[in-house]
């Protein structure tokens, strides 16, 4: 996964060799394990030197729209910490409905300004102040099959409100790799030049989100970046977490979708933040994921050795999957700081120590696009 097997070296032996080799040291030495939620939140929001350098160049306040979801809080904190380290007085503002008062208090305690806003209400969106830099995270995935009407509203109507209101801003638009077609694993995945072919209403609505921003960018000249994310890992959720928890619980793992991509959410946060400098009109798509083609069977075997439990599987290994190539992202913004072997170590430790779960499986194995 990190390198191809050597001649005569089996895949299992190769994975053991990868897991046992010295860990790479980036700008700061990564912890061997992440033990609790405060440490997890600190790692997710810890800015890199590149993040801080961006804040020395970037002008204007930053808004995180849809800051109440899985990634919004840590992204807002990362931006705030990068601004503080760079110096200056700019604001980082989290915008959400804030149905949970505890999140609002936590963000404000981190020095982040908050604004309560229902982004489905055009009048509330129109009343928001100007922000030169916008990170747009609002959308719906989980429950999309049960409420296709709400899914389409949140994934297409809200973008229309936001695109009109912030036509003079730079906008990083969180999208998804689900806009691509399913491909043979041997292909290595889709690149940004491949035509979208979304499967299912959720994925179709996500392409709709992109088209709305493309339309207003063409009409109004708004610079945007379409950030197509493939499976961020937060330890409380993610495909690696799904596989690890099933192995730990002795549950069977469906191999119908046998490969996937993944990236540490902290790296995805960094790419999103630095993507503000890549915004353009017409909008530029950018795949964001790790460099590895990950085998479900082999990762399950790795976790099985760690947990001293034999993984159970259902079916044969499927040949098609939702996969993306992130070579363009790496060339523009550099490689991820956290590699696959480190993610495996963190995930295994988190699961076997009873770390918290958000209770939201990724449904990576859903080949019919139903979530």
Give a written overview of the molecule.
- By secondary structure, the protein is of the alpha/beta class.
- It has a domain at 29-232 and 265-291 and 322-337: Rossmann fold.
- 40% of the residues lie in helices and 14% in strands.
- The chain contains 13 helices and 15 strands.
- The chain has helices spanning 11-20, 37-45, 49-57, 72-86, 101-109, 122-126, 148-165, 200-220, 239-249, 265-274, 296-307, 327-333, 340-352; strands at residues 62-65, 92-96, 113-116, 133-136, 170-176, 183-184, 224-229, 232-233, 252-254, 259-260, 263-264, 284-288, 294-295, 312-314, 320-321.
- A seven-stranded parallel sheet has the order 3-2-1-4-5-7-12, with helices on both faces. It has a two-stranded antiparallel ribbon with strand order 6-15.
- Strand 2, helix 5 and strand 3 form a beta-alpha-beta unit.
Q: Give the amount of beta strand, in percent.
A: 5-15%
CATH class (first level) name of the domain at 29-232 and 265-291 and 322-337: Alpha Beta
Average the pLDDT over all residues and give the rounded result. Answer: 90
Output the CATH homologous superfamily of the domain at 29-232 and 265-291 and 322-337. Answer: NAD(P)-binding Rossmann-like Domain
Overall helicity: 40-55%
Estimated structural class: alpha/beta
Distance between the termini: 28 Å
Number of strands: 15
CATH topology type of the domain at 29-232 and 265-291 and 322-337: Rossmann fold
Number of helices, counting only DSSP H or I runs of 4 residues or more: 13
Order of neighbouring strands in the sheet with most strands? 3-2-1-4-5-7-12
Q: Biggest sheet: strands, sense, closure?
A: 7 strands, parallel
Assigned CATH architecture of the domain at 29-232 and 265-291 and 322-337:
3-Layer(aba) Sandwich
């Amino acid at each position: 996964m990190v390198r191809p097997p050597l001649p005569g070296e089996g895949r299992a032996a190769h994975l053991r060799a990868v897991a046992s080799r010295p860990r790479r040291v980036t700008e700061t030495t990564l912890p061997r394990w992440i033990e609790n939620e405060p440490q997890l939140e600190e790692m997710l929001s810890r800015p890199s030197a590149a993040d801080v350098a961006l804040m020395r160049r970037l002008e204007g306040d930053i808004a995180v729209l849809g800051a109440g979801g899985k990634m919004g809080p840590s992204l807002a904190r990362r931006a705030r910490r990068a601004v503080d380290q760079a110096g200056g007085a700019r604001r980082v503002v989290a915008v959400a409905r804030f149905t949970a008062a505890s999140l609002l208090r936590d963000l404000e305690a981190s020095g982040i300004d908050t604004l309560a806003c229902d982004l489905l209400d055009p009048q509330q969106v129109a009343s928001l102040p100007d922000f030169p830099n916008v990170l747009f995270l609002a959308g719906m995935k989980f429950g999309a099959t049960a409420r296709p009407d709400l899914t389409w509203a949140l994934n297409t109507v809200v973008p229309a409100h936001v695109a009109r209101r912030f036509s003079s801003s730079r906008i990083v638009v969180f999208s998804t790799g689900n806009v691509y077609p399913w491909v043979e694993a041997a292909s290595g995945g889709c690149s940004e030049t491949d035509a979208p072919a979304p499967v299912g209403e959720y994925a179709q609505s996500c392409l709709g989100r992109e088209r709305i921003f493309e339309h207003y960018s063409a009409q109004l000249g708004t610079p945007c970046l379409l950030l197509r994310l493939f499976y961020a890992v937060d330890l409380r959720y993610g495909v690696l977490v799904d596989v690890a928890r099933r192995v730990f619980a002795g549950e069977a793992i469906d191999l119908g979708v046998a490969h996937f991509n993944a990236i540490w959410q902290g790296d995805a946060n960094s790419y999103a933040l630095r993507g503000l400098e890549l915004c353009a009109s017409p909008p530029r798509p950018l795949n964001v994921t790790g460099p590895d083609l990950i085998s479900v069977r082999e990762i399950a075997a790795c976790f099985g050795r760690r947990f001293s439990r034999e993984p159970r599987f259902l079916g044969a290994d499927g040949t098609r999957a939702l996969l993306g190539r992130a070579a363009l992202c790496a060339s523009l913004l550099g490689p991820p700081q956290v590699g696959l072997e480190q993610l495996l170590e963190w995930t295994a430790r988190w699961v076997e120590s009873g770390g918290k779960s958000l209770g939201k499986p990724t449904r990576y194995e859903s080949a019919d696009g139903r979530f």
